[in-house]
């Protein structure tokens, strides 16, 4: 993928990013002219750049993607994300409109183009990285698409030549009622009379289907022009996913270049998923973490785990997702596999040993990486769920108890749960209601934590015994537990274990 | 886990005369290796996401409560122990199970293809060992395996990119991946426990079966009218629920994101037990919901209000009050109902409008509209399908095969004819013991001794299984016809997947 002869022939060790002819249509060894601000990244870059540029541009883009991911993590709304990202984009990856008449237009677009393709190389290796990269790049594209000047956006879409079926006037009149029913009453000129509609296979807009935002008829989705963004963004992602698979197949050849490999490896490492970076450090080895002790320890649990624990005690049973979520959490606090098995065996007191062995034992062992394939054993089983994971998973159905209660409970029931956990401050409960009303679930949870540990937090701050990182926002149930445990047991906790590493960082 | 059964005895007794000839590479028969033995079978599941594995057990959580909690000396009817009699199950596989039609259904063509050969089957043996990643080149080899392993049931998984039995020999793990599977749905009565009053747990009766009937009608209509699917097979799950298999090629090829989209589109009730009001939809109603409401309204009066009588006592009626808007209306209703204990749900439902009209609240149109919407939401909360959506979202989820026997009831998992879905009576579905007795009775009839025609008959034709197999045959024939046409179209167009 790297043009060796260009490197050899060039004393300044310049670097060409010439993708192989076989793989991409025709290589163009000339400066590409960037007519549009937005880019579908169909053609790979062809001009040489220096190693320094290679690394610097990639790192800038990586910063942007990391911030974007953090927005989802912190549950920011699209509007909040857009305004939060604006200065970050301006600093690391500026991309001006044609109308700005900026003299840097071509340079900016070149950096955008090259950095995208460099990160493709860095993140094409595993399916996990590909999926994450594709998700974030698609978000970035969407952000830019939505902020684009309307006219330039139309020109950009036109040049892509999508073949979407327009719904004719007669058909539109015949379906007026149905189309109106999928048109939110708020949007003014969105009445099906004036508005244009595309007719596409429903598979092209799965998220609009999932949210019942389109009318479906015999396999066709009727997509209003205002939802065109979804069509364009999906097409962007579809092509990116295809491209990433092609890149991954070409990667082995790249390994031979010993100057690029370390840079790429470094890039992909600094992009590890929050979940994957879970470390053993959230546990409290040396302290009495045993099956018999879970009831006592549960005073330090965040609402999600507290709810699972009390449901388990009340019903002597938990449904599967709850069981999984809770098992992984217990693993995270340092409960050993034998203790965890003992815990579940005692907790499911209505079932026989035989049934327990048959239906539950294997899953517990699998969660710990005690059984399963090599990958599972090597990775010591599954990672305890982070707040992000709990906040982005599907909602529990009837009878299920998993997830984050700040999100899944009605406000009244949430307040009831918190009161059961000993939270009675009326002002606090009121603020929590407001938080969850604005979907700031983890802020509500952190608020509850801070209130419950007010005195202890003041003490460590006053004494300066904990540094700022130890007091950062909690983004993982296991961090919540560990921090609570340490604060409430100050002085008693085994030394050498107070390094508060957030499992999600 | 004791098991005296060889995992694959097919090799020893050769191949059925009517099975197509196999090349030397037949891999159905060389699989007696240790790795697929029941003890280590779960270890082969690494391809499966852990969450799926947690899924699998839930039906069983409450499925056999009596077998695990009942005291050992209890004198329960011995029906289930008779069904567990291995000889009965063996006779069922030998004489009754329609393997040939099952084969055609999964194979999509009369002659064997990879659609069948690379399809995963998973067996639950009589000793409860679970044997995954089984596959068979032909119907006869599947049948032989069933007769010899004599599983209590078996499940059907996806078609893989290579033969599931070869997965260990592949150099790259990524070469073994699921390619296609029917889009499936699972509706189970457990999810209705909070609103059904007639039965609880594993029990069902014709009154609560209506919940399943309503669910089938709504989901079937949406799959066909909205998504354009044509080949939707509904199957009784053997006890208290139903499964759907959407078999159109377009459905089988869907990735997880698209499966999630269909499940999300159909899912309406949100939130666990603690989330309060479960139906929160905007107006105007989406056309799918508008149509579903029209279907469900028909059932609400008889099947919910009078048959289930869900708000009879005061605790239950306070649940109803929680779902209504306007504090004045709610307190007026509460007062009325407190003074008339035992008032029926039907009357209470009527009271809502009566009280509203007598001037609690204003008579403006906003009030009327809000009240109507709240009542629609309540109808939906009590009638709209409650799907176990997780089952539908994953391409690699396994589901029990049609025509298996439910080990708890002995009933056969028969197809449900959606054209006569209202007539389907789960309690009259034949059990395996009844069917075997029917064959004996038929054969014992002396008049038939000399009948030449009769000698050629399949055993299932002599029993009450016949209409169900006939229906299934018709379903499979229609699917195969479409596959044939579809394949011809694709051949003529050239392969659109090539670029
Ligand atoms: Zn019933």
UniProtKB/TrEMBL annotation, chain A:
Protein name: DNA primase large subunit
Keyword 4Fe-4S: yes
Gene3D superfamilies named among the record's database cross-references: 1.20.930.80
Protein family membership: Belongs to the eukaryotic-type primase large subunit family.
Signal peptide segment: none
GO CC annotation terms, alphabetical: alpha DNA polymerase:primase complex
Matches recorded under Pfam families: DNA_primase_lrg, DNA_primase_lrg_N
Chain segments carrying region Disordered: 1-22
PANTHER family per the UniProt record, alphabetical: DNA PRIMASE LARGE SUBUNIT (PTHR10537)
Lineage: Eukaryota, Fungi, Dikarya, Ascomycota, Pezizomycotina
TrEMBL record, chain B:
Any GO BP annotation: DNA replication, synthesis of primer
InterPro entries: DNA_primase_S, DNA_primase_ssu_euk/arc
Alphabetical list of Pfam families matching this protein: DNA_primase_S
Chain spans, region Disordered: 1-83
Enzyme Commission no: 2.7.7.-
Bilayer-spanning residue ranges: none
One of the record's GO cellular component terms: alpha DNA polymerase:primase complex
Gene3D superfamilies found in the cross-reference section: DNA primase, PRIM domain
GO MF terms held by the record: DNA-directed RNA polymerase activity; metal ion binding
Keyword Nucleotidyltransferase assigned: yes
Enzyme class: transferase
Lipid biosynthesis in keyword set: no
Keywords from the UniProt entry: DNA replication, DNA-directed RNA polymerase, Metal-binding, Nucleotidyltransferase, Primosome, Transcription, Transferase
Compositional bias ranges of the Polar residues kind: 24-42, 64-81
Composition skew (Acidic residues), residue ranges: 53-63
Family the UniProt entry places it in: Belongs to the eukaryotic-type primase small subunit family.
The protein's name: DNA primase
Originating species: Viridothelium virens
């Amino acid at each position: 993928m790297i043009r060796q002869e260009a490197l050899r022939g060039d004393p300044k060790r310049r670097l060409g990013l010439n993708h192989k002819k076989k793989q991409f249509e025709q290589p163009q060894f000339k400066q590409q002219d960037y007519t549009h601000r937005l880019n579908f990244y169909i053609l790979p870059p062809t001009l040489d750049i220096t190693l320094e540029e290679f690394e610097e541009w990639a790192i800038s883009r990586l910063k942007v993607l990391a911030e974007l991911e953090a927005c989802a993590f912190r549950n920011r709304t699209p509007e909040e994300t857009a305004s939060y990202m604006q200065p970050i984009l301006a600093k690391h990856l500026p991309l001006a409109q044609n109308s700005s008449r900026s003299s840097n237009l071509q340079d900016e677009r070149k950096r955008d183009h090259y950095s995208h393709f460099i990160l493709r190389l860095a993140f094409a290796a595993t399916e996990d990285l590909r999926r994450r990269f594709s998700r974030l790049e698609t978000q970035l594209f969407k952000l830019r698409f939505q902020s684009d000047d309307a006219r330039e956006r139309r020109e950009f879409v036109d040049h892509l030549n999508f073949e979407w079926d327009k719904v004719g006037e007669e058909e539109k009149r015949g379906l007026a009622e149905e189309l109106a029913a999928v048109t939110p009453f708020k949007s003014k000129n969105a009445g099906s009379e004036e508005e244009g509609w595309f007719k596409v296979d429903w598979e092209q807009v799965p998220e609009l289907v999932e949210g019942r935002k389109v009318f479906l008829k015999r396999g066709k989705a009727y997509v209003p022009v205002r939802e065109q963004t979804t069509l364009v963004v999906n097409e962007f992602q579809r092509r990116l996913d295809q491209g990433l698979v092609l890149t991954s197949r070409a990667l082995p050849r790249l390994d031979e270049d010993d100057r690029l490999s370390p840079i790429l490896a470094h890039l992909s490492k600094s992009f590890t998923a929050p979940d994957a970076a879970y470390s053993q450090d959230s546990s409290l080895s040396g302290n009495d973490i045993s099956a018999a002790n879970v009831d006592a320890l549960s005073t330090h649990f965040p609402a999600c785990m507290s709810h699972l624990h009390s449901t388990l005690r009340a019903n002597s049973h938990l449904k599967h997702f709850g069981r999984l979520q809770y098992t992984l959490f217990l693993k995270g606090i340092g409960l050993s596999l034998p203790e965890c098995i003992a815990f579940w065996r005692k907790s499911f007191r209505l079932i026989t040993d035989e049934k327990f062995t048959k239906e539950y034992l294997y899953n517990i062992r699998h969660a710990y990486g005690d059984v399963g394939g090599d990958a599972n054993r090597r990775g010591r089983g599954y990672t305890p769920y982070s707040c992000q994971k709990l906040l982005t998973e599907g909602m529990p159905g009837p009878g299920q108890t998993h997830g984050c209660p700040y999100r899944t409970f009605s406000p009244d029931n949430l307040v009831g749960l918190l009161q059961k956990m000993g939270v009675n401050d009326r002002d606090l409960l009121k603020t929590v209601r407001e938080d969850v009303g604005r979907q700031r679930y983890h802020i509500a949870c952190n608020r509850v934590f801070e209130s419950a540990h007010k005195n202890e937090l003041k003490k460590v701050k006053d004494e300066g015994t904990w540094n700022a990182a130890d007091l950062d926002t909690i983004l993982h149930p296991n961090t919540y537990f560990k921090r609570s445990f340490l604060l409430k047991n100050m002085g008693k906790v085994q030394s050498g274990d107070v390094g508060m590493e957030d499992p999600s960082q | 886990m004791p098991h005296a059964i060889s995992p694959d005895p097919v090799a020893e007794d050769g191949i059925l005369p009517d099975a197509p000839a196999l090349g030397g590479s037949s891999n159905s028969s060389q699989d007696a290796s240790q790795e697929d033995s029941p003890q280590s079978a779960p270890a082969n599941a690494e391809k499966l996401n852990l969450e799926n594995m947690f899924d699998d057990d839930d039906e069983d959580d409450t499925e056999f409560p009596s077998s695990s909690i009942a005291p050992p000396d209890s004198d329960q009817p011995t029906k289930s122990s008779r069904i567990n009699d291995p000889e009965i199950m063996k006779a069922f596989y030998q004489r009754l199970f329609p393997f040939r039609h099952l084969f055609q259904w999964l194979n999509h063509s009369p002659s064997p293809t990879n659609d069948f050969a690379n399809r995963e089957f998973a067996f639950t043996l009589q000793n409860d060992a679970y044997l995954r990643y089984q596959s068979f080149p032909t119907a006869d080899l599947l049948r032989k395996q069933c007769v010899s392993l004599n599983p209590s049931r078996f499940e059907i998984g996806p078609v893989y990119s290579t033969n599931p039995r070869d997965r260990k020999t592949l150099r790259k793990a990524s070469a073994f991946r699921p390619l296609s599977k029917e889009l499936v749905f699972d509706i189970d009565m457990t999810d209705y426990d909070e609103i059904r009053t007639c039965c609880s747990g594993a029990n069902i009766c014709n009154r609560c079966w209506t919940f399943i009937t309503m669910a089938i009608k709504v989901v079937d209509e949406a799959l066909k009218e909205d998504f354009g699917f044509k080949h939707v097979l509904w199957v009784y799950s053997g006890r208290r629920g139903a499964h759907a298999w959407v078999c159109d090629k377009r459905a089988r090829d869907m990735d997880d994101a698209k499966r999630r989209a269909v499940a999300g589109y159909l899912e309406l009730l949100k939130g666990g037990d603690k989330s309060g009001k479960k139906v929160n939809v905007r107006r105007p109603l989406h056309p799918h919901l508008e149509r579903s409401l029209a279907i469900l309204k028909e059932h609400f009066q008889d099947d919910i209000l009078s048959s289930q009588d869900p708000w009879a006592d005061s605790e239950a009626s306070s649940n109803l009050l929680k779902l209504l808007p306007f504090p004045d209306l709610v307190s007026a209703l509460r007062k009325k109902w407190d003074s008339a204990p035992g008032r029926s749900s039907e009357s209470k439902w009527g009271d809502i409008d009566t009280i509203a009209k007598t001037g609690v609240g204003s008579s403006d149109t906003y009030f009327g509209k809000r009240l109507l919407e709240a009542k629609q939401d309540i109808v939906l909360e009590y009638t709209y399908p409650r799907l176990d959506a997780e089952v539908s979202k994953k391409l690699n989820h396994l589901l029990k095969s049609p025509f298996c026997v439910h080990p708890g009831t002995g009933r056969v998992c028969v197809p449900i004819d959606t054209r006569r879905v209202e007539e389907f009576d789960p309690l009259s579905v034949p059990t395996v013991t009844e069917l075997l007795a029917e064959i004996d009775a038929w054969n014992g009839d002396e008049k038939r001794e000399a009948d030449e025609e009769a000698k050629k008959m399949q055993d299932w034709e002599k029993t009450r299984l016949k209409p169900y197999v006939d229906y299934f045959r018709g379903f499979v024939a229609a699917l195969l016809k479409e596959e044939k046409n579809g394949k011809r179209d694709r051949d003529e167009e050239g392969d659109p997947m090539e670029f």
